[in-house]
Amino acid sequence: MYDLVKAGGELFENFEFKSSVQERFTSAVINSNERLLALQAITAFGRSLTFILPVLALKRKQPGKYVHFVAVPYESLKMATRTKLENAGLVVGETGMLTDLHAEANLSGVDVLVGCFDSYGDAGVADVMKLWEKVFGTRRSRGIFVFDEAHVLWLEKSFRNIFHSVKGLNWKSFLKVVFVSATLSSKLGLFFIV
Q: What pLDDT, in 10s, does the model give residues 52-79?
């Protein structure tokens, strides 16, 4: 069991979860046997903390083992997410780093890669994600993959061809796949609605 309150204490003095639902979902992200998790929660619920705390806890427990991924719909949200993650003490890069000839070296200290949804569908990025073990061996594992504002993925996928390659990203190789949004389809796995 990972100590999420301790991870929260690294960010906020006297940290406590805002609600029991936030605590249960955050714990599920890191401790449950479910690989696919989804959260629909109102603005100001603390959705970002539900994935930032597990990433922090994994970094403290197993430094350098995982590269985590956050996908967002818009460039402005990508920059805001990057800032949140950096303020939490995480080393953040962008998905484009995966297509660099020196991807392995570039990612040596990176905890999280952040990109817009379509960047994960880019042919070069998708190829590296599919061939992860060949590129990184056992040195770095794929950690938690987060789709933030995930409802946009459902809205846009029917008319943007680049999303078709996202489907082929060997999702079982990630530690967890997490969908968070204020408005989300109930067709997903383990689902928390608040």
A: 999 999 999 999 999 999 999 999 999 9
Measure the CA–CA gap between 107 and 104, rounded to whole angstroms: 5
Mean pLDDT, the chain, rounded, equals 85
According to the CATH classification, is domain 4-193 in 3.30.565.10?
no
Task: From residue 163, give the alpha-carbon distance in Å to each of 69, 114, 116, 153, 159.
Answer: 16, 17, 11, 9, 9
